[in-house]
Amino acid sequence: MALYILYESASGYSLFLGHGLDEIGQNTEAVRGSVADLNRFGKVVKLVAFSPFESALDALNQCNAVSEGQMTDELRNFLELTLPKVKEGKKSKFSLGVAEPKLGSHIFEVTKIPCQSNEFVLELLRGVRLHFDRFIENLKPGDLEKAQLGLGHSYSRAKVKFNVNRVDNMVIQAIFLLDTLDKDINSFSMRVREWYSWHFPELVKIVNDNYLYAKVAKYVEDKSQLSEDHLPGLTDIVGDEDKAKEIIEAAKASMGQDLSPIDLINVKQFAQRVMDLAEYRKKLYDYLVAKMNDIAPNLAALIGEVVGARLISHAGSLTNLAKCPSSTLQILGAEKALFRALKTRGNTPKYGLIFHSSFIGRASTRNKGRMARYLANKCSIASRIDCFLEKNTTAFGEKLREQVEERLDFYDKGVAPRKNLDVMKSAIETVETKDTEMVVDEPATELSSKKSKKKKHKAGAKDDIEPMAEDNLAAVINGDAPEEPKSEKKKKKEKRKLAQEAEEEKNEPMENVNGANGFNAEDGTAKKNKKKKSKDENTEDLPAASEGKKKKKKKSRSEDTD
Fold first, then answer.
1. Is the pLDDT of residue 336 over 70?
2. If DSSP states are collapsed to H, E and C, what string results for 497-537?
3. What H or E segment, with its residue span, contains residue 492?
């Protein structure tokens, strides 16, 4: 049986035919020995056909299909044109060797071409890959390597599909910049205080906040020109009228020296730069909160956005943080203290970056270590949920936060907390209920429109029922029985009966008049039956009366003869 070999290269599909393989008996070791030598391997394997790809995009699509075990239309046409045709009802005298078993099974299902994938075929494909540039004519050196490199890059980019909204590198850069800004703003604010204190030293004790101090220094400028007219502006900046008055009184009796206009301009410009940095720091913090809610919502809900971002940046990424056990996460940020304790055989640290969480600060001194261990356990769970869960939800983080609160109450008051299994079940239920609500809300508009249509239809039916009832009553009064419709729903029948009863109650005096004349206004059919019965009774009484008359006549005749 002939063996054809399908090889998928970066430049196109190629088909090879194995010669003399039956004599070798498909000995893998013999093939391994002949693979390195092109002369020996060229006698065993020969090129039959080659179909190049049209473009780099076509090559990427073909490579993706082969990796998923799917046969494209181009590959099917190539195989049907190059392989010998098999007659119906007869076995094929060849087989096709492929590298991927899934691809072989799909080819056999569609085209009925027998395929095989084993060690022998893989060794032959290894030799084809090694000497492929020798089999293809007019192939320039370096073209195959360029095609492989370009296809490899595009295939990797297509396979590694990152979610743009969940790139944790942005959080790492934002938290680093936030820390740097905090240091810079503090140092610049101290520089503004020292610089302006030469002119107005009493202002440092009155205004403690760095941002407000820069604002006031920019607004006041020269203390000698500060008067009661500046009181509303100072009150808006400081937020307290008494403090604004205190600043004006201190400016009048200040011991600072005067500054030149150029110096005051420089101080004013530097104070403006500090204010801009402080405002940008606020915007950056809002950006960090938004990114943390996208990347690690459960970790942010549990421990806070800033502490969670510090943990992610220290671990390197959210994936690395999810890989860390809770014991490692507990001492992240305290590596120096840990190795120093191991070296000196002292006590190891109980907490690292998670010390900045409010839970450990709320715990007593005796329970800080326990609280750190428990909080690290919950942070590890939350980070793994955020890393591997595709849905963006904070339900798990909120439930884990409730568990930490319960643990604090247990340490302080002795209240037994819930089990982790029950809490996780309730979290999963909340997530499922939210999903169902999302699904229900989507077709809500369609349902409302359908309901409105039904209401309109029912209203139209009611309007039709009333004239029908009036027509029926008129027909009964005239002595004609109304014909009932053949196909009506029960609801319409009940509504019609109600309408008829209402009309009948209105027409009760009419019924009494008709009753005196022998008519019944409730049912016309009953009236006719009564008329027929009365006629039958009258017809039955007629012969009896005639017989009595005859007897009387006979009696009178007999008396006359006597």
1. yes
2. HHHHHHHHHHCHHHHHHHHHCCCCCCCHHHHHHHHHHHHHH
3. helix 490-506
Alpha carbon dihedral 72, 75, 80, 82, in 10-degree steps, equals 180
- Which DSSP helix (H) or strand (E) runs through 7? strand 2-8
Ordered DSSP codes for 29-94? HHHHHHHS-HHHHHHHEEEEEEEE-SSHHHHHHHHHHHHTT---HHHHHHHHHHSPP--TTS--SE
46 to 134, 423, 549: CA distances (angstroms): 11, 66, 134
So what's the pLDDT on residue 498?
A: 76
Report the pLDDT value the prediction gives residue 533, as an integer from 0 to 100.
Answer: 44
Q: Where are the alpha helices (DSSP H) in 304-394?
A: 305-315, 318-323, 326-330, 335-344, 358-362, 368-388
Q: In terms of DSSP bridges, do strands 115-116 and 2-8 run parallel, antiparallel, or are they unpaired?
A: unpaired
Report the distance separating Cα 126 and Cα 28, nearest Å: 12
Task: Determine the Cα–Cα distance for residues 33 and 40; give it in Å rounded to an integer.
Answer: 9
User: Residue 391's Cα: distance from chain center in Å?
Assistant: 5
First to last CA, the chain: 143
The answer to which of 76-85, 321-330, 444-453, 506-515 has the lowest mean pLDDT is 506-515
Burial 477-486 (b: 16+ CB within 10 A, else e): eeeeeeeeee
Single out the residue of 123, 110, 116, 113 nearest to residue 44, CA to CA: 123
> What single letter denotes the amino acid at residue 90?
K
Taking the mean position of all CA atoms in its chain, how far away is CA 234? 50
Distances (CA, A) of 275 to 179, 210, 218: 17, 9, 10
Query: Quick one: 301 exposed, middle or buried, by C-beta within 10 A (0-12, 13-18, 19+)?
Result: buried
* Residues found in the chain: 562
114: Cα separation from own chain's centroid: 44
pLDDT digits (tens, 9 = 90+) for 535-547: 444 444 444 444 5
What CA–CA distance (Å, rounded) separates 7 from 62?
12
Give just the sign of the alpha carbon dihedral 14, 19, 25, 30. Answer: negative
Lookup: tokens for 216: 């006031």
User: Packing angle between helix 395-413 and helix 368-388, nearest 10 degrees?
Assistant: 170
Residue 93, Cβ density class (10 Å: 0-12 exposed, 13-18 middle, ≥19 buried) = exposed
pLDDT tens figures, 396-435: 999 999 999 999 999 888 888 888 888 889 889 888 888 7
Give the three-state DSSP class for 495: helix
Sign for the pseudo-dihedral over CA of 320, 324, 328, 329: positive
- Please tell me whether the overall predicted TM-score, pTM, comes out greater than 0.85 for this model: no
